[in-house]
Design a protein that fits this description.
The chain has 215 residues and is mainly α. It has two domains: 3-123, Hypothetical protein af1432, CATH 1.10.3210.10; 129-213, no CATH class. It has eleven helices and no strands. It has helices at 3-15, 28-42, 50-59, 71-80, 91-102, 115-123, 129-143, 149-164, 179-190, 193-207, 210-213. The chain is globular, with a radius of gyration of 18 Å.
Length: 215
Amino acid sequence: MDSTTHIRDFLEREIVPRYDDFDAGHRRDHVHHVMEQALALARFYPHVDRNMVLVAAAYHDLGLAEGRDNHHTVGARILREDHRLLQWFTPEQIAVMADAAEDHRASSDHEPRTIYGRIVAEADRHIDAVTIVRRALQYGLAHYPQLDREGQFTRLCEHMRDKYDTGGYLKVWIPQSDNAQRLQEFRDLLHSPGALRQLFDSLYETEQQPSNHTP
């Protein structure tokens, strides 16, 4: 097997299963999506190392094991300290991948430092109305179980405005990505309260099932 196959096997065996312990919006389906999206975006940049992109994407949310607030820096530390990666990468490459994992966070106070960080950050965006609202609701149900339906909706709306509305902290970084158009479409939804409420209500009934939002 070539190194790419070995790396992919390692990630699937040792890294991806760790997402099983996270909230419903950050489990295997999420990390797999980010990994595949990152590889797709990497095709626009022939000079980047696709194995480095894949590893940074796989590790990007591992810091959730220690909480959400600092998960980006914790994830970078986990990657940086995983000496198993030295069988495929130099210390300098590992440092770049750790920076990329750290820079993925939408609310980061600085732009991604490298093209690797931009790729992983963009891959993590996944701007799709149903997915965004479902993940926000899942997070609310898992972390604020004391809130009733109206409380969950209010929390979700506030978060949506802060992150996705015009002037929000989410940015898109890769011109070739279709996220800019998707972001505008989602902003249109945010300014259609009836449509947003209808989507929320349809998801709330499903996500209220205990098996769907147990962290």
